[in-house]
Every structure is written in structure tokens, then in C-alpha cells.
Write a structure and sequence with these properties.
Elements: H1 5-10, E1 21-24, E2 29-32, E3 38-42, E4 45-46
Antiparallel strand pairs: 1-2, 2-3, 3-4
């Protein structure tokens, strides 16, 4: 089972900027388009916890 496309349309980064996320189905991850944090998708459930995200390399991390 894959993530519902309608769910992907409304998901956003849980950080204060609430930027959209891009989905990598092969890697089972969601990546923030602003800060670059990578969130895992486990058993088709997005884990949008900042404490569990891999660090990003986006523009917000340079500040």
C-alpha cells in the first residue's frame, strides 16, 4: 500500500515554516522543500516528528 496522493497534497513540514514535502517512494521518505529535513515513512505512515527527522541541508539550516 502506498501513500494516498490526497494525503501527500496536504502534508507539510511540522517546523514553523510548514513547507511542502516531496515524496520518495523508493526510499520511503518525505523531504521538506525548505529545510531539507528527511522524514521516514514506516508501514505507509509518515513519521513527522522533528526529533526523528534526519538533518536537512536546505536554506533554513544555514541561518
Amino acid at each position: 500500500m502506498a501513500l494516498d496522493p490526497h494525503l501527500l497534497d496536504i502534508l507539510a513540514c511540522p517546523d514553523t515554516h510548514h513547507a511542502p514535502l516531496t515524496h520518495d517512494a523508493a526510499a520511503q521518505t518525505l523531504t521538506c522543500t525548505e529545510c531539507g529535513r528527511v522524514f521516514e515513512v514506516r508501514d505507509d505512515i509518515p513519521v513527522l516528528l522533528l526529533d526523528e527527522a534526519r538533518p536537512g541541508t536546505g536554506p533554513a539550516t544555514a541561518a
